[in-house]
């Protein structure tokens, strides 16, 4: 018997896409302006009172330029706005507009329904175990080992 065991990162990526595709379809059905998966990630990374572009880039693991592009299109779509940062005259905060808050609430409800559907498919205990494992602190990734050659 031969089989190819898929890597855990691949499986996690497929699971993420399952949730993203389901949520995007649900949002489209609710009339929310079209968004892309990276825009969804940005939306999820926002603090309630707003977040700087630099902090969003750090949280998302992308460049500031990538965040600026996503913010620009979400601002144009009426879901986000830029406001002065009260703690720094040089920075601006990115935050949800009223329409963006409404879309965020719809996305939260869609994700809850998707999680319920997943529990129907694989079992509530499996979903609870998955959530528990993913909520555990994993710590920093292990550092790459540097091979040391003996010195001459």
Topology:
Layout: H1 8-29, H2 37-45, H3 53-60, H4 64-76, E1 80-85, E2 88-96, H5 98-122, H6 124-135
Antiparallel strand pairs: 1-2
Helix pairs in contact: 1-5, 3-4, 5-6
Short summary:
It is built from six helices and two strands.
Structural description of this entry:
By secondary structure, the protein is mostly helical. 59% of the residues lie in helices and 10% in strands. It has six helices and two strands; from the N terminus they run ααααββαα. It has helices spanning 8-29, 37-45, 53-60, 64-76, 98-122, 124-135; strands at 80-85, 88-96. A hairpin with a 2-residue loop joins β1 and β2. The radius of gyration is 20 Å and the shape is flat. The N and C termini lie far apart (50 Å). 13% of the residues are buried. The model has no long low-confidence stretch (mean pLDDT 90).
Describe the structure using short key phrases.
152 residues, mainly alpha, two-stranded antiparallel sheet
**H/E series:** HHHHEEHH
- Widest β-sheet, arrangement of strands: 1-2
* Cα Rg: 20 Å
Number of helices: 6
Helix share of residues? 55-70%
Give the biggest beta sheet.
2 strands, antiparallel
């Amino acid at each position: 018997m031969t089989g190819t065991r898929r890597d855990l990162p691949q499986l996690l990526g497929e699971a993420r896409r399952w949730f993203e595709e389901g949520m995007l379809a649900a949002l489209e059905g609710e009339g929310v302006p079209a968004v892309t998966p990276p825009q969804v990630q940005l939306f999820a990374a926002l603090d309630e009172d707003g977040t700087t572009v630099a902090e969003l880039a750090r949280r998302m693991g992308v460049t500031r330029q990538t965040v600026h592009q996503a913010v620009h299109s979400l601002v144009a779509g009426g879901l986000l706005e830029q406001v002065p940062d009260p703690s720094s005259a040089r920075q601006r905060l990115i935050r949800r507009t009223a329409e963006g808050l409404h879309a965020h609430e719809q996305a939260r409800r869609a994700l809850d329904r998707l999680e319920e559907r997943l529990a129907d498919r694989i079992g509530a205990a499996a979903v609870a175990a998955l959530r528990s494992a993913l909520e555990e602190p994993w710590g920093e990734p292990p550092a790459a080992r540097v091979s040391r050659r003996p010195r001459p």
